[in-house]
Amino acid sequence: MLEKLDAIDRGILKILEKDAKTVAKSIAEQLGLTKTPVYERIKRLEKEGYIKNYVAVLDTDKIEQSITVFSFVSLEAQKGSLMDDFLEKVKQFNEVSECYVVGGEFDFLLKVTVKNLDAYYDFAKSKIATLPNIGAVKSAFVLNEAKNQQYFPLL
Predict the structure, then answer these.
(1) Are 101 and 87 in contact (CB under 8 A)?
(2) In degrees rounded to 5, what are phi and psi of residue 57?
(3) Angle, to 10 degrees, between the axis of helix 24-31 and the axis of helix 35-47?
(4) 155 vs 150: CA distance, rounded Å
(5) Strand 67-75 to strand 108-114: parallel, antiparallel, or no bridges (unpaired)?
(6) pTM: predicted TM-score of the whole model, two decimal places
(7) How far apart are CA 71 and CA 10, in angstroms?
(8) C-beta separation of 90 from 132 below 8 A
(9) What is the pLDDT of residues 11-66, one digit of tens each?
(10) How far apart are CA 89 and CA 75, in angstroms?
């Protein structure tokens, strides 16, 4: 069973969320602790699944031109197995970086990154539209990224 997070665990997570390359010694200094217990806590947080992965956040504008599209997808029928099938297929699409099951007018929200509008059209036509049970797809195109927070606001 997972242990409850205490203030020290939360402090460690806050620091690592903002910079995953922060070493245990620096974290310990920031929290007024010694290196060894901080290192052991980090290993426990990883083992228990609180820390799922360490990633580099890329500046995509410097790498290549791209657009981000939020696609709202509705299925014709919302049976569990059909929803599961949709999710499994979408996980295989490299263009989809995030996928959420949502309530309301739509069933899923996809965050899609492609090179340009033509590439999005091809993606929507050749991948999403060909999936079984698709009812509707509506798209919102990102014009300007005002905030992209990569961390969970721990209280």
Answers:
(1) yes
(2) -90, 120
(3) 110
(4) 16
(5) antiparallel
(6) 0.82
(7) 34
(8) no
(9) 999 999 999 999 999 999 999 999 999 999 999 999 999 999 998 888 888 888 89
(10) 14
Contact 121, 129 (CB under 8 A): no
Integer Cα distance of 143 and 112 in angstroms: 14
What is the distance of C-alpha 70 from the center of its chain?
A: 13
Residue 108 is given by DSSP the state E
Take residue 128 and report the two structure tokens written for it. Answer: 């999403």
Strands of 134-141's sheet in order across: 96-101, 108-114, 67-75, 134-141
pLDDT of residue 154: 77
Query: Domains of the chain, with CATH numbers?
Result: 7-47 (1.10.10.10), 60-141 (3.30.70.920)
CA–CA gap between residue 31 and residue 78 (Å, rounded):
48
Residue found by looking up tokens 């997570």 in the block = 13
